[in-house]
């Protein structure tokens, strides 16, 4: 069982920045070996992958966020960070942290990001 707790969402103007955090309750060794991801879901749309980071630090990004978002991990703190810059109204969504252990998927409760003037 893994609990994921997100924080850092909020209301920001277009062009602004936010940093999301996700803390995992898994043991340090398990976390170090886990792929961690951020997904988002806007109203009326399907949940989509935003970014993920592999155990070795390799990252993948959705085309829509490349060059604006940066995903990083701190294995000593069991935490991943999603730095979001140059935010656009279309980034508005609930953002979810995700990881998988074996065949089980784990999700956080989500944090709302609203980009609006």
Q: What would you say this structure looks like, in words?
A:
With about 120 residues, the chain is mainly β. The chain contains one helix and eleven strands. The chain has one helix at about 30, and strands spanning about 5, 10, 20-25, 35-40, 50-55, 60, 70-75, 80-85, 95-100, 105, 110-115. The strands form two sheets. Strands 2, 4, 5, 6, 9, 10 and 11 form a seven-stranded mixed beta sheet that branches. Strands 1-3-8-7 form a four-stranded antiparallel beta sheet, with no helix packed on it. The protein is globular.
Instruction: Summarize model confidence as the mean pLDDT.
Output: 95
- Provide a count of the helices: 1
Structural class: mainly beta
State the share of residues found in helices, binned by percent: under 10%
> Based on CA inertia axes, which overall geometry fits?
globular
- The run of helices and strands is EEEHEEEEEEEE
Count of DSSP E strands?
11
- What gyration radius follows from the Cα positions, in whole Å? 14 Å
Low-confidence segments: none
Task: Indicate the proportion of strand residues.
Answer: over 45%
The oligomerization state is: single chain
Brief summary:
With 117 residues, the protein is mostly beta strands.
Q: What are the SSEs and their pairings?
A:
Elements: E1 4-7, E2 10-12, E3 18-24, H1 28-32, E4 36-41, E5 48-53, E6 59-61, E7 69-74, E8 79-84, E9 93-101, E10 104-107, E11 111-115
Parallel strand pairs: 2-11
Antiparallel strand pairs: 1-3, 3-8, 4-5, 4-9, 5-6, 7-8, 9-10, 9-11
